[in-house]
Automatic annotation (TrEMBL):
Lineage: Bacteria, Bacillati, Bacillota, Bacilli, Bacillales
Keyword Transcription (UniProt): yes
Top-level division of the source organism's lineage: Bacteria
Keywords: DNA-binding, Transcription, Transcription regulation
SUPFAM superfamilies, sorted: Winged helix' DNA-binding domain
Descriptive protein name: GntR family transcriptional regulator
Length: 136
């Protein structure tokens, strides 16, 4: 599994890891039932401490994207399609909050509604699959 981190960026490492795993699931490169590397192994591969990986895994576990293995081995599995999280009020609140902030900035920069909508659609259609492709 390949994850690219921006250690100098504003987004915490655990959020970057979680976002890229979700993108891999959305793109279909991380298939249901796939076992993810242990937090210690992934942290070693990324050359970071294991805490951000553990936080990412715990967040994805709480949201329903991952499941713990119960076959006597440690690790996390990508949830089955039936067990994947659905849209929730909490998710919609987060989505609206982030989009409101970005829309306000876009308006302040002179972006039209059509340009903002086009950018959102383009990201939804292409960037998720591009991000997800880097995970295998």
């Amino acid at each position: 599994m390949f994850i690219e981190l921006d250690v100098q960026g504003d987004v915490p490492l655990h959020e970057q890891i979680a976002q890229q795993i979700i993108a891999g699931i959305a793109a279909g490169t991380l298939k249901p039932g796939k076992t993810l590397p242990s937090a210690k192994r992934l942290a070693s591969d990324l050359r970071i401490k294991s805490l951000p990986v553990r936080k990412a895994y715990q967040s994805l576990l709480a949201e329903g994207f991952l499941q713990e293995r119960y076959d006597g081995r440690l690790g996390m599995l990508v949830s089955s399609k039936e067990e994947m999280p659905r849209m929730t009020d909490r998710y919609m609140e987060r989505l609206h909050s982030r989009l409101r902030t970005l829309a306000a900035e876009g308006r302040a920069r002179g972006m039209t509604e059509a340009e903002f909508s086009k950018a959102c659609v383009a990201i939804y259609r292409s960037d998720l699959s591009r991000m997800g492709d880097s995970l295998e």
